[in-house]
Amino acid sequence: MKKIYNPQPEIWSEICKRPTQTFSHVEETVKQIFKEIQQKGDKAIAKYASFFDGVTLENIQVTQEEIEIAKNEVSTELKEAIQLAKSNIEQFHAGQKTDKIVVETTIGVTCWQEKRPIQKVGLYIPGGTAPLFSTVLMLAVPAKLAGCKEIVLCSPSDKNGKINAAILYAADLCGVTKIYKVGGIQAIAGMTFGTETIPRVYKIFGPGNQFVTIAKQFASQNDVAIDMPAGPSELLVYADETAIPSFVASDLLSQAEHGKDSQVILVTTNKNILNDVEEEIYKQLKELPRQEIAQVAINNSKLIFVETEKTALSLINEYSPEHFIVCSKNEDYFVDGIQNAGSIFIGNYTPESAGDYASGTNHTLPTNGYSKSYSGVNLDSFMKAMTFQKISEIGIQNIGKAIEIMAEAEGLQAHKNAVTLRLK
């Protein structure tokens, strides 16, 4: 890992760069696949499933029989773990429900806000080397709690035409309504436009590689909302002398193993911690089955020493990490001062993995600095707020004159007339 000592603020933007780039050929590939799926539907879906996933499927929709078979393949131990995680995620997201807000702004003028579910949502679940059944819980649980009527899930199949059994078990457990064996760009395009088999949705959720990320951006240009801009995983840890180096190293590696384009960063005010964590990283790295992937990510990552906690906090807010762990005797300083982070983990015994799986918070979070302006997925992500107003005869008398004056000042006579007629 690259060691950086006392970087000056003028180079922070360089330090904060992620190891990903947007290549024009990726965009052209996405554009071409979107166009073809819009025009040819299922036929194009089948073509790209064969091309990218090496599989020919007669039926891309998962049957109930396939779900039952998958449920029997999942061990009792894993089922119990998934059920525990689901319960905690449900509790946390159920706590985010809000009541209708009613305000009488003026006598006779009542305004209120209610939240209604998005009727059709699409969930993208990566498969491949790390089938993320945990992401099914993170997306389907709040979708169900919100009251979404149609919850569509797409995930790539293996070369035998099967979706990972744990993904199917979690999807069935959480009330997903339809499951399709479609991955990558073609899955996002299918949910964007709809095909003969895949329904069009109103909003798409879920992580993915660079191709999926760009595909979601294209979806957002075609009348479909997306959860957030999200790319490769990232973690920043702040650690002082109270941190346990082996714990810190394990957290950094837990994100590094996600993918070669992941990035992990340690910020510290203690040089001994910096060196101890580095030593632990290389010791633990040798034992990882995904060592090759983690090693590439580690090569893109940094160990940063700064003199003061104030400087550390400013640098962390500038980086705006997806995940932020703070292990410090002054944890309140960082907890109170952090402005830009997707999810925060506090203390030596709060690994980032807890948020990934079972503490209850959502692991679908903004990356690449987007935590400056985006929230992670939550219950409201699956809902939209609608405003209502009801005005009585007295109410229109109370605000009518102001409306007339304002409409006339903007040169909108019809707006003024709509009030004047009522005042008469």
TrEMBL record:
EC number from the UniProt entry: 1.1.1.23
Chain residues that bind substrate: 233, 255, 258, 323, 356, 410, 415
Domain of life: Bacteria
GO molecular function: histidinol dehydrogenase activity
Gene3D superfamilies: 1.20.5.1300, Nitrogenase molybdenum iron protein domain (3.40.50.1980)
Keywords in alphabetical order: Amino-acid biosynthesis, Histidine biosynthesis, Metal-binding, NAD, Oxidoreductase, Zinc
InterPro entries in UniProt: Ald_DH/histidinol_DH, Histidinol_DH_CS, Histidinol_DH_monofunct, Hstdl_DH
Pathway given in the UniProt record: Amino-acid biosynthesis; L-histidine biosynthesis; L-histidine from 5-phospho-alpha-D-ribose 1-diphosphate: step 9/9
One Pfam family from the record: Histidinol_dh
Binding-site residues for Zn(2+), renumbered to this chain: 255, 258, 356, 415
Co-factor requirement: Zn(2+)
Residues of the active site: 322-323
Family as reported in the entry's similarity comment: Belongs to the histidinol dehydrogenase family.
NCBIfam families assigned to the protein according to its UniProt record, in alphabetical order: hisD
Function, in words: Catalyzes the sequential NAD-dependent oxidations of L-histidinol to L-histidinaldehyde and then to L-histidine.
Record-given protein name: Histidinol dehydrogenase
Organism: Flavobacterium fragile
